[in-house]
Amino acid sequence: MELITNDRLKIAIKILRACLFIGLIGCALITVGILGVLSYAKTQGAPPLAVPLSTLFYAEDGTLIGEERHQGETRYWVSLDDMSEAVIDATVSIEDRNFFDHNGFDYKRIGGAVLADIKAMAKVQGASTITQQYARNLFLEHEKTWNRKLTEALYTIRLEQNYSKKEILEGYLNTIYYGHGVYGIEAAANYYFGKRASELSIAEASMLAGIPKGPTHYSPLVNEEKAKQRQNVVLRSMVQNGVISNKTAEQARAEELTFTGNKVVGREDIAPYFQDAVKKELHSKLKLDQDTIETGGLRVYTTLDPDLQKMAEEKVTNVIKEDSGIQLGFVAMDPKNGEVRALIGGRNYEESPFNRAIQAKRQPGSTFKPILYYAALEKGYTPSTQIRSELTTFSYDDDRSTYTPRNYKNYYANDSITLAQAIALSDNVYAVKTHLFLGDGELVDTAKKVGIKSNLKDVPSLALGTSGVSVLEMVNAYATFDNGGTRHKPIFITRVENYKGEIIYENEPKPKKVLDEDLAFVTTQLMTGMFDEKLNDYTAVTGSTISDRLTRFYAGKSGSTDTDNWMIGYSPQLVAGIWTGYDNNEPLTIVEESHYAKNIWAEFMEEAHQDIAPKPFKPTEGVVGVYVNPDTGLLPTKDCPVSRLTYYKKGTEPTEYCSKNMEDVKKDKPKKKEEKEKKGFFKRMFDWF
C-alpha cells in the first residue's frame, strides 16, 4: 500500500515538473513573442497619420468660399485645442474610459467582453480601445479576419510607442466616421449643427459621440428616436466617468437640438472660376499634384474679395439679358500688388467651366492702343503730337502687301488730330501710322514689358488689337500703368497651410519696374480722355455713353471688333476689365450687345467705390500739367479759348500758342451734332480744367 502511494507521488511530481517546465517554456516563448512584436513595431517606426482631408479655400477676409472633397467625402482636421471639452469627455467616456491609462489594449475590458460573449453565446460586446479603432480607421479595412486583427494589434502598438495620447485622440476624433460621408468631429459639427467643433454643447457633443457605433442607425437625421436613446447612453457614461453631474446630464437630455444637415460654417461656394484658377496655381507654383490638392487637407488663403465678386456677378446678371447667348470674361485687380479681387469666367460654370477670363484668347481691339501710345511717348510723342486722320492704304513687307484700316462708321477728321484726341476718339488711322513709325518689334516689346505673354503677330493691324490675348493679361497690363510702371504678376494665393496649420507657401511680392513712371502717368492721363467731351472732334469720345454715370476719376479704354467687345479701366485703387462676345465668334450685330461691356464696367466700378473717397491720379515729379487747346494741342489764346489740363513729361510741354487761323481750320471740321445739356459729374469735372 505504501509502495503504491510512493509511486503515485513520484508520478505527480513528474507531472508537476513537466507542467512547470512546459509553463516556463510557454512563458519564455510568450516573452520572446512579445519582445519580438515590440522590437518589430519599434523597427517599423512611427506609422504615417496622413488621411484624405478636404482642402479648404478662403477669401481675403477669411470667409470660407469652397472646398475640394475626396470622392465626395467631407474631412477636416482641427487640433484637440479647437474641440470643445464636452466632445473629448463624451467620446472617451463612451468609447474608451481607460484611454489615458492603458497602453493601447484594455485587458480588463477584453476579459469582460469575452465573458459576456460566452454567456450570450454571441458577439454582444466590443473591447476595442480608441487606439485600436484609430489604427483600423487609418490603415485597415473593416473585414473580420484574424489577419486583420493581428495587423490592427501591430499598428496599435506602433501608435502607442510613437505618439502621445493627445496625438492619438486628436487623430481619432479627426478620422472617425459620423455618417452621410462626414469624417471627423469638425465636419460632423458643421454637418449636423452648422457649428465648429469648439462650439458644441454637452447635449450636441453627446449626440455626436453616439453616432460612430452605428452611423446608419444612430444618425439623428435617419432616426432621431434611436439617436436620442444612444445619447442617453453616452450621458450615463459621462456621469459614471465623473466628467459631468447627474443634474448636467438631465439638462443635456432636455435640451432641444436643431439639426441643419449639410451646412458648412461660413461657406458660400462662390467664384468657381476663381477657385479653378487657384487650383491651377497650386499645381504650377507649388508643384502640388492633383491628389495632394484633393486630399491634403490644405488651407488655401486667396486674394478674392467676396463683396467685389458678388457685385460683379450681380452687374452681369442685371445687364445681360437672360436669354442672350453672349459670354464674358471679367477680372478686377488691386494695381498696387497684383492681387485678383474678383473673376468671372463665364455666365454659368455648371454649363461651361471654360474660363474665358484666363483661357480664352480674344482680339482686344482698341484696348491695345494705350500700350502703343506709351511706346510712342518713349519715342518722342507727346499728347500734342499731330497726325492726319484720313482714309489711308498702307503698303508693308517686301511683297508690298497693303492694309487699309477704317474708323468706326468710316468717320475721319480729314485733318490733323492730336494724340490726346486720337486715343479718346479711338482713331485707327492715327494708331496704324504710329505703329509703322515706331518700327518692327517696338509694340511687341512694350506689350511684353507690361505682362502680355500671348503670341503677338507684328503686323500693321496689331496697333488695333488683332492678336488674341486674355482678359487677365490685359487687366494686368493696365494695372502696370496704374501702378506707375511697376508690374506685379497676377496673384491668386497669399498663403497655404497644411492640415497642421504649418505654412508651406507664402506669397512674396516681386514687383518689377518696367516703364518710365512719368510716361506711365502721361498714358494714364491720356486714358482719362475717353470720358471728356472737350476732346470731341469728328465724332464723340468713346466713353460718352457712360460718362454721365461716373462720379470720380477714371482712366480707361474701350475696344471692339466684329466679334469682341471690351472695356478696361481703373481708378487709383482698382482696375477692372471685361470682354463680351460669343464662344463661336458670332458677329456682334445687336446694338445692345455692343454696350454690355461698358455698362457692366461702369456699374461695377461705381458700386465698388461707393464707400471710398474720390481720389485723383497723383502726378509724378517728372511731369508738368499745362492747359492746352484740345483741338490743336497748343497753348490757348483768346482766339482759341477752350482749354484742357494736359500732362507732359517735363521739357516736352508745348510752348507755341494757338493762332486764329488754326482755330478757324478746326471749326470747319464736322462735329457731332447732338450734345446733351445735362452733364454728369464726370463731364462737369472736366469743364473745370
Automatic annotation (TrEMBL):
Domain (Glycosyl transferase family): residue spans on this chain: 62-238
GO MF, any single term: penicillin binding
Cited Pfam families: Transgly, Transpeptidase
Transmembrane region(s): 20-41
Cell compartments where the protein resides: Cell membrane
CC per GO annotation: outer membrane-bounded periplasmic space; plasma membrane
Protein's UniProt keywords contain Glycosyltransferase: yes
Swiss-Prot/TrEMBL keywords: Carboxypeptidase, Cell membrane, Cell shape, Cell wall biogenesis/degradation, Glycosyltransferase, Hydrolase, Membrane, Multifunctional enzyme, Peptidoglycan synthesis, Protease, Transferase, Transmembrane, Transmembrane helix
GO biological process terms held by the UniProt record: cell wall organization; peptidoglycan biosynthetic process; proteolysis; regulation of cell shape
Reaction(s) catalysed (UniProt annotation): [GlcNAc-(1->4)-Mur2Ac(oyl-L-Ala-gamma-D-Glu-L-Lys-D-Ala-D-Ala)](n)-di-trans,octa-cis-undecaprenyl diphosphate + beta-D-GlcNAc-(1->4)-Mur2Ac(oyl-L-Ala-gamma-D-Glu-L-Lys-D-Ala-D-Ala)-di-trans,octa-cis-undecaprenyl diphosphate = [GlcNAc-(1->4)-Mur2Ac(oyl-L-Ala-gamma-D-Glu-L-Lys-D-Ala-D-Ala)](n+1)-di-trans,octa-cis-undecaprenyl diphosphate + di-trans,octa-cis-undecaprenyl diphosphate + H(+); Preferential cleavage: (Ac)2-L-Lys-D-Ala-|-D-Ala. Also transpeptidation of peptidyl-alanyl moieties that are N-acyl substituents of D-alanine
Xref: Gene3D superfamilies: Biosynthetic peptidoglycan transglycosylase-like, DD-peptidase/beta-lactamase superfamily
Domain Penicillin-binding protein transpeptidase per the UniProt entry, residue ranges: 329-573
Similarity field: In the N-terminal section; belongs to the glycosyltransferase 51 family.
Name by which UniProt lists this protein: Penicillin-binding protein
Native organism: Bacillus timonensis
Origin organism lineage: Bacteria, Bacillati, Bacillota, Bacilli, Bacillales
